[in-house]
């Protein structure tokens, strides 16, 4: 009987802990669902804002190019050149030459003036943060457009009329599309465009999500029916409740056994000490020929028992705890050791690795990178540093100086996650990188969303203006590949060719390439 008492007490403790956690799990699950809903809708609102900013950036780049050509008169030859320029840029409907006060002098397509219901003067236009551009609503019979004004000289300015396509705002999940409204407006409240399937559909206790641009006077809003939103993604309730009960049972077991547990940060430290963080390799390939041109190394935690921990389960903790720098160097050294023969045999092959902004700006980053690459006896021009755009660069001037130093030493620099991160295209140019990587979000939607195609084409055109190359991430289907090629993208990566692979599997994938290269060398020697 005495021996049974500890067992009964232990079981009671575990049961009590499970019940308490289970009761708390109900509230936690509801809170979790609401948080996830708000996060996803906040992200969608941000996507609409970024798309709108891209449209402004695209128009601004076009006006700058026209200004360099001295296209600031109403001569027939000049207007013909402007019309050709507009024809090549489907997002722009017209370009007009205006006086300093904003009044129209002439238009590339004079017939579009007939569709204007009104035209604002310069005092009513809204300035951008840098003061180089002014935005305003152009009221037209067929729907409002966005006017983007840039001063060319003291006596004239150019205005691009940007069409606001409703498909730009068609981003809502299927469950919410019929019960929501997506709106783009100027900071003064003037509405530029919206997407709403059924304007007569009443919305009860609607929830509103807002975002304002920090560069342009643009504001986006998503409004969703509260009743429909409460049921959206509710399937997470029972798994969350089960997790809470499981945690309660685990807590009771650990508490009952009085076992001291160490935190997850200590687990990270053990993994670093044991060298358990390994590079996985995903090929970067030419979209037309499928030839593998390089690879990106991605972190995986390979535990002693052989189990692989996905990056989402440890990268955020590594970043917040300051372990990400040691982890990055560990993975890079391992990758350089693995790929040294390939990098030496093929001088055009490039190895890419990710660096968070804080690591890029940390003391001694450039020198440590140089020493690591020189020790591996690899050419610096074969190394690409990918700076993720999801984390904001607090000091752009300092970051640009670091990038300039890296490029002086021969390294290449890419900006990752372009299109869904913090930086605008003007900031990308200021950073001085070689490459932009189009985020998987755009690749996923390029075959189903016409506005995504327009955005990708804008990115390609602007990258060309900035003398950058473009890489598309997350390519999974032949249809996506064809759409990207049609949009001007030349290089990409994704599961269509290969998932991130351990080195042994990556070597098998590259074996035919090595054999072909060897045969070519032998043929050259014989010749």
Helix and strand topology:
Elements: H1 4-68, H2 76-87, E1 92-98, E2 104-107, E3 116-118, E4 126-127, E5 133-140, E6 145-153, E7 156-163, H3 174-177, E8 180-186, E9 191-195, E10 207-212, E11 218-224, H4 226-231, H5 237-257, H6 264-273, E12 277-286, E13 292-302, E14 308-309, H7 315-321, H8 324-345, E15 350-355, H9 357-360, H10 365-375, E16 383-388, H11 396-408, E17 412-418, H12 425-431, E18 435-438, H13 440-445, H14 450-465, E19 469-472, H15 478-486, E20 491-492, H16 503-526
Parallel strand pairs: 13-15, 15-16, 16-17, 17-18, 18-19, 19-20
Antiparallel strand pairs: 1-2, 1-7, 3-5, 4-5, 5-6, 6-7, 8-9, 8-11, 10-11, 12-13, 12-20, 13-14
Helix pairs in contact: 1-5, 1-14
What do these coordinates show?
- With 527 residues, the chain is of the alpha/beta class.
- It has 2 domains: 1-261, no CATH class; 281-299 and 332-521, TIM Barrel (Alpha-Beta Barrel), CATH 3.20.20.
- Helix content is 45%, strand content 22%.
- The strands form 3 sheets. The protein has an 8-stranded mixed β-barrel, surrounded by 4 helices.
- The chain is globular.
Spatial order of the strands forming the largest sheet: 12-13-15-16-17-18-19-20
Chain-averaged pLDDT: 84
The secondary structure category is alpha/beta
What is the domain tally? 2
What share of the residues lie within helices?
Answer: 40-55%
Q: How far is the N terminus from the C terminus?
A: 92 Å
């Amino acid at each position: 009987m005495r021996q049974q008492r500890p067992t009964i007490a232990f079981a009671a403790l575990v049961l009590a802990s499970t019940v308490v956690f289970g009761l708390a799990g109900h509230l936690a699950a509801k809170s979790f669902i609401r948080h996830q809903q708000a996060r996803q809708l906040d992200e969608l609102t941000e996507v609409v804002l970024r798309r709108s900013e891209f449209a402004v950036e695209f128009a601004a780049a076009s006006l700058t190019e026209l200004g360099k050509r001295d296209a600031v008169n109403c001569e027939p030859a000049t207007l013909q050149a402007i019309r050709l320029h507009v024809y090549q840029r489907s997002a722009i409907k017209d370009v007009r030459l205006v006086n300093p006060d904003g009044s129209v002098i002439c238009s590339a397509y004079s017939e579009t003036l007939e569709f204007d219901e009104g035209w604002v003067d310069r005092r009513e236009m809204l300035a951008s943060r840098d003061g180089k551009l002014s935005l305003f609503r152009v009221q037209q019979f067929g729907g409002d457009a966005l006017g983007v004004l840039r001063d060319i000289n003291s006596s004239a300015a150019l205005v691009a009329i940007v069409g606001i396509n409703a498909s730009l705002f068609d981003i809502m999940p299927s469950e919410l599309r019929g019960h929501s409204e997506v709106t783009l407006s100027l900071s003064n409240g003037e509405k530029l465009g919206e997407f709403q399937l059924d304007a007569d559909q009443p919305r009860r206790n609607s929830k509103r999500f807002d975002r304002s641009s920090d560069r342009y006077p643009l504001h986006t809003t998503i409004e969703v029916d509260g009743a429909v939103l409460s049921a959206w993604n509710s399937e997470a309730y029972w798994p969350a409740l089960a997790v809470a009960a499981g945690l309660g049972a685990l807590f009771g077991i650990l508490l009952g056994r009085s076992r001291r547990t160490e935190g997850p940060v200590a687990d990270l430290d053990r993994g670093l000490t044991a060298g358990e963080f390994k590079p996985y390799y995903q090929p970067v390939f030419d979209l037309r020929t499928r030839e593998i041109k390089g690879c990106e190394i991605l972190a995986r935690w390979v535990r002693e028992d052989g189990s692989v921990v996905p990056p989402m389960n440890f990268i955020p903790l590594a970043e917040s705890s300051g372990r990400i720098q040691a982890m990055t160097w560990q993975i890079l050294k391992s990758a350089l050791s693995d790929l040294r023969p390939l990098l030496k045999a093929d001088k055009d092959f490039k190895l890419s690795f990710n660096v968070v902004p804080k690591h890029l700006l940390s003391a001694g980053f450039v020198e440590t990178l140089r020493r690591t690459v020189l020790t591996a006896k690899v050419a610096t021009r074969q190394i690409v540093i990918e700076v993720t755009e999801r984390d904001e660069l607090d000091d752009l001037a300092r970051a640009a100086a670091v990038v300039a130093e890296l490029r002086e030493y021969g390294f290449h620099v890419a900006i990752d996650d372009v299109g869904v991160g913090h930086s605008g295209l003007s900031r990308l140019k200021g950073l001085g990188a070689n490459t932009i990587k189009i985020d998987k979000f755009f690749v996923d939607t390029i075959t189903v969303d016409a506005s995504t195609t327009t955005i990708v084409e804008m990115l390609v055109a602007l990258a060309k203006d900035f003398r950058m190359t473009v890489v598309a991430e997350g390519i999974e289907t032949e249809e996506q590949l064809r759409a990207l090629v049609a949009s001007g993208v030349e290089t990409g990566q994704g599961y269509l060719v290969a998932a991130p692979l351990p080195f042994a599997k990556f070597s098998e994938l590259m074996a035919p390439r090595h054999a072909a290269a060897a045969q070519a060398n032998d043929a050259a020697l014989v010749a």
